[in-house]
Amino acid sequence: MKNRLKVLRAERDWSQARVAQLLGVSRQTINAVETGKYDPSLPLAFALSRLFERSIEEIFEPNSE
Amino acid sequence: MKSEVESSSWRAGMPRRDWRNQWHLIGWIFAWMLSFVGASALLRFGWVGGSAGYLVALLPNLLGVATFWSFLRFLREADELQRKIRLEALGWGFGCGAVFMVGYQLLERAGFPPIDTADPLVVMSFAWAMATLVLTRRYS
To answer: Taking Cα atoms as reference points, which of B106, B111, B96, B139 lies closest to residue A34?
Structure first.
C-alpha cells in the first residue's frame, strides 16, 4: 500500500522516532509502514490519521491492480 | 541532555513496555536453561535422589511455565509489527521442529541413529531465533 507518511512527516519536520513515540509504537513500525513493507492495523491507521489531521484515504492509497 | 525520544515511555527505538517485556523474557529463558542444566547435573551425578530428586526434576518446569507466560505477555502487549514478527517466527520454529520430528522418525526406521527426545526442541528454537532475525531485518 502506498502512503504519504514521509511527506506529511517532512511538512512537520518530525522524525520517524518522533512519530513512533507519539503513537506508542516502535520506530521500526513507522519505518516499515512508510516504506510500504508493512500495512498498519486499522487502529494504527486511525491513529496516524488523527496525528496528521488527514483522512485515512489522504494518507494511504491501495496499490493499483 | 536526553532527547525527546529517550523519554520515560520509549527506549532504544521501541516502547519501554516492549523493552521491559523483552528483557523479562530473556531473563526467564536464561533462568529456565540454567535450572535445566543444574537439575540435569544434580540428577545425572546422583547428588539428589528420592523425593528431593522429584522436586529437582519439577523445578525447571515451573520456570518453563513462567517463561511461557512471559512470552505470552510480551506478545499481548507488543507493538503490532513486533507481534507479527514474533508470531511468524514462532510459526517457522514450530513448522521446522514438527517437520524435523516427523521426518526423522521415518529416517530412524530407515536406519538412522536414534535421537534424544529434546533434539526437535533444539531445531525448533534455532529456527525460531533465525526467523526472528531474518524477519526483523526484512521489516527494518
So the answer is: B139
Contacts of B13 in chain A (CB under 8 A): 17, 20, 26-28
Q: Is the pLDDT score of B4 beyond 70?
A: no
What 3-state class would DSSP assign to A6? helix
* pLDDT, position B5: 45
CA dihedral defined by B112, B116, B121, B124, rounded to 10 degrees?
-10
The CB-side HSE value for B94 (13 A sphere, CA atoms) comes to 6
- Tell me which residue in A15, A18, A26 faces B14 most closely, judged by beta carbons: A26
Sign of CA dihedral B40, B42, B48, B52: negative
Q: How far is B104 from B114, CA to CA, in rounded Å?
A: 9
Report residue A45 as a C-alpha cell: 491507521
Residues in chain A closer than 8 A to B140 (CB atoms): 28, 31-32
Question: CA B64 to CA B79: how far, in whole Å?
Answer: 24
Nine cell digits for residue A20:
513512533
- Bridge partners for A60 per DSSP: A3
The residue of chain B nearest to residue A37, with distances taken between CA atoms, is B139
pLDDT digits (tens, 9 = 90+) for B78-104: 999 999 999 999 999 999 999 999 999
Contact at CB, A27 and B13, closer than 8 angstroms:
yes
Phi, psi of B10 (to 5 degrees): -145, 140
